[in-house]
Backbone:
Protein backbone atom coordinates (compact mmCIF):
# COMPACT_ATOMS: atom_id res chain seq x y z
CA UNK A 1 0.00 0.00 0.00
CA UNK A 2 1.50 3.24 -1.21
CA UNK A 3 0.68 6.92 -0.78
CA UNK A 4 1.52 8.84 -3.96
CA UNK A 5 2.61 12.42 -3.28
CA UNK A 6 1.54 15.45 -5.30
CA UNK A 7 4.92 15.75 -7.04
CA UNK A 8 4.70 12.32 -8.62
CA UNK A 9 1.12 12.93 -9.81
CA UNK A 10 2.15 16.27 -11.34
CA UNK A 11 5.04 14.60 -13.16
CA UNK A 12 2.66 11.86 -14.31
CA UNK A 13 0.14 14.35 -15.72
CA UNK A 14 2.81 16.50 -17.39
CA UNK A 15 4.81 13.66 -18.95
CA UNK A 16 3.84 12.45 -22.40
CA UNK A 17 4.00 8.82 -21.29
CA UNK A 18 3.23 9.37 -17.61
CA UNK A 19 5.50 8.71 -14.67
CA UNK A 20 6.68 5.12 -15.07
CA UNK A 21 7.23 4.61 -11.34
CA UNK A 22 3.64 5.66 -10.61
CA UNK A 23 2.30 3.54 -13.46
CA UNK A 24 4.14 0.51 -12.08
CA UNK A 25 2.82 1.12 -8.58
CA UNK A 26 -0.72 1.62 -9.86
CA UNK A 27 -0.49 -1.71 -11.70
CA UNK A 28 1.09 -3.67 -8.85
CA UNK A 29 -0.10 -2.22 -5.56
CA UNK A 30 -2.88 -0.37 -3.84
CA UNK A 31 -2.28 3.35 -4.28
CA UNK A 32 -3.81 5.72 -1.78
CA UNK A 33 -4.67 9.34 -2.30
CA UNK A 34 -4.81 11.96 0.44
CA UNK A 35 -7.27 14.85 0.76
CA UNK A 36 -4.44 17.39 0.75
CA UNK A 37 -2.86 15.86 -2.36
CA UNK A 38 -6.20 15.85 -4.15
CA UNK A 39 -6.70 19.49 -3.16
CA UNK A 40 -3.26 20.50 -4.40
CA UNK A 41 -3.86 18.77 -7.73
CA UNK A 42 -7.29 20.37 -8.10
CA UNK A 43 -6.06 23.86 -7.24
CA UNK A 44 -3.02 23.41 -9.47
CA UNK A 45 -5.31 22.85 -12.46
CA UNK A 46 -4.38 19.20 -12.98
CA UNK A 47 -7.90 17.85 -12.43
CA UNK A 48 -9.90 19.92 -14.90
CA UNK A 49 -11.18 16.81 -16.62
CA UNK A 50 -14.17 15.21 -14.87
CA UNK A 51 -13.04 11.67 -15.73
CA UNK A 52 -9.64 12.35 -14.23
CA UNK A 53 -11.20 13.73 -11.03
CA UNK A 54 -13.47 10.70 -10.81
CA UNK A 55 -10.56 8.35 -11.46
CA UNK A 56 -8.54 9.85 -8.64
CA UNK A 57 -11.58 9.86 -6.36
CA UNK A 58 -12.00 6.13 -7.03
CA UNK A 59 -8.69 5.44 -5.26
CA UNK A 60 -8.82 4.70 -1.56
CA UNK A 61 -8.26 7.88 0.45
CA UNK A 62 -6.08 8.00 3.51
CA UNK A 63 -7.99 9.70 6.29
CA UNK A 64 -6.42 12.99 7.25
CA UNK A 65 -5.01 13.27 10.77
CA UNK A 66 -6.16 16.00 13.11
CA UNK A 67 -3.92 19.08 13.33
CA UNK A 68 -3.00 18.45 16.98
CA UNK A 69 -1.57 15.01 16.13
CA UNK A 70 0.44 16.43 13.24
CA UNK A 71 1.78 19.26 15.43
CA UNK A 72 2.89 16.75 18.06
CA UNK A 73 4.53 14.64 15.35
CA UNK A 74 6.41 17.71 14.06
CA UNK A 75 7.70 18.46 17.56
CA UNK A 76 8.52 14.83 18.44
CA UNK A 77 10.41 14.25 15.20
CA UNK A 78 12.17 17.64 15.23
CA UNK A 79 10.82 18.56 11.80
CA UNK A 80 10.91 22.33 12.32
CA UNK A 81 13.41 23.88 9.91
CA UNK A 82 13.81 20.70 7.84
CA UNK A 83 12.56 22.35 4.64
CA UNK A 84 9.13 20.76 4.38
CA UNK A 85 5.74 22.40 4.77
CA UNK A 86 2.45 21.68 6.49
CA UNK A 87 1.03 19.55 3.66
CA UNK A 88 4.22 17.45 3.55
CA UNK A 89 4.09 16.96 7.32
CA UNK A 90 0.49 15.75 7.07
CA UNK A 91 1.41 13.33 4.29
CA UNK A 92 4.48 12.12 6.19
CA UNK A 93 2.49 11.64 9.40
CA UNK A 94 -0.37 9.82 7.69
CA UNK A 95 1.92 7.53 5.67
CA UNK A 96 4.04 6.55 8.66
CA UNK A 97 1.17 6.11 11.11
CA UNK A 98 -0.80 3.98 8.67
CA UNK A 99 2.14 1.83 7.52
CA UNK A 100 1.97 3.11 3.95
CA UNK A 101 4.90 3.43 1.62
CA UNK A 102 5.49 6.81 0.01
CA UNK A 103 6.45 7.68 -3.53
CA UNK A 104 7.46 11.24 -4.22
CA UNK A 105 9.86 13.23 -6.34
CA UNK A 106 10.51 15.56 -3.40
CA UNK A 107 13.95 14.50 -2.13
CA UNK A 108 13.60 16.17 1.27
CA UNK A 109 10.27 14.49 1.89
CA UNK A 110 11.53 11.10 0.68
CA UNK A 111 14.68 11.34 2.81
CA UNK A 112 12.71 12.28 5.92
CA UNK A 113 10.26 9.45 5.28
CA UNK A 114 13.12 6.97 4.88
CA UNK A 115 14.83 8.20 8.07
CA UNK A 116 11.64 8.08 10.14
CA UNK A 117 10.54 4.66 8.90
CA UNK A 118 13.93 3.12 9.67
CA UNK A 119 13.94 4.38 13.27
Residues:
Amino acid sequence: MILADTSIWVDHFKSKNGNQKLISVLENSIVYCHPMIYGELLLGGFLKDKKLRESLLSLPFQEQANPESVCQFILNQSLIGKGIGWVDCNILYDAINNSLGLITLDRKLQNLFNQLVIH
Notes: The chain is about 60% helix and 5% strand. The CA atoms of residues 16 and 113 lie 29 Å apart. The mean pLDDT is 94. The longest strand covers residues 2-4.
